[in-house]
Write a structure and sequence with these properties.
alpha/beta, Rossmann fold, Arc Repressor Mutant, subunit A, 4 domains, 7-stranded parallel sheet, binds adenosine-5'-diphosphate, binds zinc ion, ATP-binding, DNA_helicase_ATP-dep_RecQ_bac, Helicase_ATP-bd
Length: 601
């Protein structure tokens, strides 16, 4: 093809994959032919191959712009495992290593160079690249160029220079953010207006998605982890604050799990250590803020939970997209409360952003609330946020699996709203529910609320149900929570027609079952896979990865090890037929793997 290397042959020989996935083949052909373009693929969709293979097929150096050092280093480590001459150039590189990279660049022995945007756009680097043959530029995480994106990086603003200075070199921009505004911004900034956009389906059918109102956070998380962990893969719990991330990691450890923590407030050494432990291949659970983000390539993340409402469907999807990159089943759980919704609305209102920006953020937040409060297939609603229309309910979300019952909640809503009004809009939900349920608490007595006509009118519903009614009214905009003060409930203008009986309210029956008691005290609760060959191969991989200082999965992925354990090949030739075993890895590790297997013979 085109007189260059053959993409399919490289896919087999270098990467050990059996075939291209989805849009990969089209993109690769386009890029090998010298075309530029924008590639929209969900996280885990396989973006890397879209530029790595064309870079290997075309003459010259492939230059990859990447926003994160950890991300660069992991990709370079993985490429080197496959004998692809790759290197990373960034500000944290020790001087002798930077010199070595420059030497290889000057010798023309490098095939792929990962570089931070500020390094790339430094005049010294540009001048050097001017003199070289460049196979292509790949701009990874291209949404960082957009101010509308949730990861704006000012350094990315210098990238338009690539189109001006290297007009003949193909540019590939890659991102998992498909929001139309961000897409337009990327096209404009990187000079891709006239180039094709390759859009993959954003669906990740192997991730089962679910959302629940937060009732008993720890118990809900425990139940989720029990159902989702497989004893070998990792888990991620995203928390709204640094403090909560730390607390969560603590109780995970108390529960006997290997709990880790990551947030932006930690010192660089601790952060690096946490990253390393996560990449190491052990069955760890990471409690983190969204600062733990890009650069997580571990393929066997089995679950992602959120303890707080994310600010947009884009960020949520990117975060849960870190689950199940290996294509095996994975689970996502979102926990949220009425307070989250109100607080997020409030933050946008009070932020110093322009009105336009506020409007956009508010829209995104409301879309997220819509997903959380869904009463039809959650995945369909989610995909609609990315402009994708799924014809059928997915069958793999909590709503599809256990459809919620809707009921006419007008009377319940009226009772709650009038209890709020009668108590003078000065109380939080706890007290309002006590009044509804006719509980004579100290506070109720103190304020004489047992004399109100609404006292006890809500005995028909349990406490959790009332919290559900309140949360849904908040989500529907009829009720506000004064997050500034003490969380008192305040009816909005939208409450008036409900109270007057001019408008009815459909509510979901709450499905929250009282979660399992007890803890995950022993690791034995989460079953480790029983195949001793698989376990032995993982042990071998762990030692090998440690010795080389690389993440475990760049040696072999779990999926490959599992297949090897099942197939039990006895020769290098039969080992080479297993997906994930390319030529280089066969040469490097083939004998070791066979030896591990022979110990069981
Ligand atoms: P992204 O950058 O889009 O999040 P990656 O490029 O990291 O995704 O790929 C995600 C996972 O899918 C990786 O583990 C990769 O090895 C695997 N993968 C990508 N393309 C293929 C393919 N054609 N066949 C098999 N596995 C693939
Ligand atoms: Zn569904």
């Amino acid at each position: 093809m085109n007189g260059y290397g053959d993409p399919l042959e490289i896919l087999h020989r270098v990467f050990g994959h059996t075939g291209f996935r989805g849009e990969q083949e089209t993109v690769v052909q386009h890029a090998v032919g010298g075309g530029s373009g924008l590639i929209l693929m969900p996280t885990g969709g396989g973006k890397s191959l879209c530029f790595q293979i064309p870079a290997l097929c075309r003459p010259g150096l492939g230059v990859v712009v990447s926003p994160l050092i950890a991300l660069m280093e992991d990709q370079v480590a993985a490429l080197r495992q496959q004998d692809v001459p790759a290197a990373a150039l960034h500000s944290e590189l020790p001087p002798d290593e930077a010199r070595a990279v420059w030497r290889d660049l000057n010798n023309g022995t490098l095939k792929l160079l990962y570089v931070s945007p500020e390094r790339l756009t430094a005049e010294g680097t540009l001048a050097r690249l001017d003199e070289m043959e460049i196979a292509l530029f790949a701009i990874d995480e291209a949404h960082c160029v957009s101010q509308w994106g949730h990861h704006f990086r000012p350094e990315y603003r210098a990238l338009p220079i690539l189109a001006q200075r290297f007009p003949r070199v193909p540019r590939l921009a890659l991102t998992a953010t498909a929001d139309p505004r961000t897409v337009q911004d990327i096209q404009r900034q990187l000079g891709l207006e006239d180039c094709p956009v390759f859009r993959s389906s954003f669906d990740r059918p192997n991730i089962m998605i679910s959302a629940q109102p937060r009732e008993q956070e720890r118990a809900q998380l425990r139940r989720f982890i029990k159902g989702a962990a497989d004893g070998t893969g990792a888990g991620l719990i995203y928390c709204g604050t640094r403090r909560k991330a730390e607390q969560t990691a603590d109780w995970l450890r108390q529960d006997g799990l290997d709990g880790l923590v990551f947030h932006a407030g930690m010192d660089p050494l601790a952060k690096r250590e946490a990253h390393k432990r996560f990449a190491g291949g052990d069955p760890v659970v990471m409690a983190a803020t969204i600062a733990f983000g890009m650069g997580i390539d571990r393929p066997d993340v089995r679950f992602v939970a959120h303890t707080d409402l994310p600010k947009s469907p884009e960020s949520w999807y990117q975060e849960i997209g870190r689950a199940g990159r290996d294509g095996l089943p994975a689970q996502a759980l979102l926990l949220y409360g009425a307070g989250d919704i109100a607080l997020a609305r409030h933050r946008i209102q009070e932020s110093g952003a322009s009105d336009e920006q506020k409007r956009v953020e508010r829209q995104r937040l409301e879309a997220m609330v819509g997903i959380a409060e869904a009463s039809t297939c959650r995945r369909q609603i989610l995909l609609r946020c990315f402009g994708e229309e799924a014809p059928e309910p997915c069958g793999a979300c909590d709503i599809c699996l256990t459809p919620p019952k809707l009921f006419d909640g007008t009377v319940a809503a009226q009772k709650l709203l009038s209890a709020v009004l009668r108590t003078g809009r000065r109380f939080g939900l706890g007290h309002v529910v006590d009044v509804l349920q006719g509980k004579t608490t100290e506070k109720v007595a103190q304020f004489g609320h047992d004399q109100l006509p609404t006292f006890g009118v809500g005995r028909d519903l349990p406490e959790a149900a009332w919290r559900g009614v309140a949360r849904q009214l908040v989500a529907q905009g009829a009720l506000d929570v004064a997050v500034e003060n003490h969380g008192e409930l305040v009816p909005t203008d939208a409450a008036r027609p409900i109270l007057k009986g001019e408008q009815s309210v459909m509510l979901r029956e709450e499905l929250v079952t009282v979660p399992a008691r007890g803890s995950l005290r022993t690791r034995g609760n989460i079953e480790a896979p029983s195949d001793p060959r698989f376990a032995a191969l993982r042990e071998w991989r762990k030692r090998t990865a440690l010795a080389q200082g690389v993440p475990a999965y760049v040696i072999f992925q779990d999926r490959t090890l599992a297949e090897i354990a099942t197939e039990q090949p006895e020769t290098l030739e039969s080992l080479s037929t297993i997906p994930g075993v390319g030529n280089t890895k066969l040469e490097r590790y083939g004998q070791d793997v066979l030896r591990v297997l022979r110990e069981f013979a």
